[in-house]
Amino acid sequence: MNLCGLSQPSQPKLPDAGQGTCCYGAACMGPERCTCWEPVFEVEQTPPDSQTVTLLAAGVQPVTRQRPCDDCAYRPDSPERRGDPNVAGDQELLEQIVQRGERFWCHQGIRRPIAWRHPAGVQIPGSPVNYQPPIIDGVPYRADGTPAEVCAGWAARRRALETPERQP
After folding, report:
1. 21: left (phi > 0), else alpha (psi -120 to 50), else beta?
2. Does the N-terminal or the C-terminal CB of the chain have fewer CB atoms within 10 Å?
3. pLDDT in tens for each of the 168 residues of the chain?
4. 121 secondary structure, DSSP code
5. CA-to-CA distance for 45 and 134, rounded, in angstroms?
6. What is the pTM of this model?
7. How far apart are CA 85 and CA 69, in angstroms?
8. How far is CA 10 from CA 40, 69, 81, 87, 88, in A?
9. Pick from 104, 103, 113, 105: nearest CA to 147
C-alpha cells in the first residue's frame, strides 16, 4: 500500500523524555524505542463508513482524483522527483510503483500528527509528510471517514504505460 508520506516510519526519531526508563521499550532497548509517545492529530478521525468498506471489499473500484493535487509526488517539480532528502520516496521508487501496478493513494484529507506528546510533558512537532490513516483491506481512509482517492498523477502515468505507442 502506497500513500504519499506513508513509506516513512509511523513515528519520527523522538528524544528521550522519560530518562530512558519510562516504559519497557525504553528500559530494554534505549530511549529511542520509547513507546509512550502519542500522536496529536490535526483533526479527529471519523470512523470509515461500514457500507463503503463492504463495497470496496467486494471489488468496487475507488475513485481516482480528476487532477493531480498541487503537491502531487508525480508532478515533474515535486520534492520526490527532485531528490529532496526530506521526503521518503524518489523518482525511481515512484516509477516502480507505477510499473508494478501498485495503487498510489492521494494524501488529501488524510490525517497526520501535527505533534508527538510524551506523558512526561514533552511535545515535539510532527512531520508534514507523515500520514496515519486507518487502513482497511489496503484502502486508506480520510479524516472524514471516506476512502482516499487514487492519485491522479499515478493514474496518468499508469495509463501512459498501458497505452501502446501508435505506429505511423
Report:
1. alpha
2. C
3. 565 544 444 556 777 776 767 888 888 888 878 888 899 998 999 999 899 999 998 989 999 999 999 989 999 999 888 888 878 788 999 999 999 999 999 999 999 999 999 998 889 998 777 888 999 999 999 999 999 999 999 999 999 988 876 555
4. S
5. 8
6. 0.80
7. 21
8. 13, 23, 22, 14, 12
9. 105
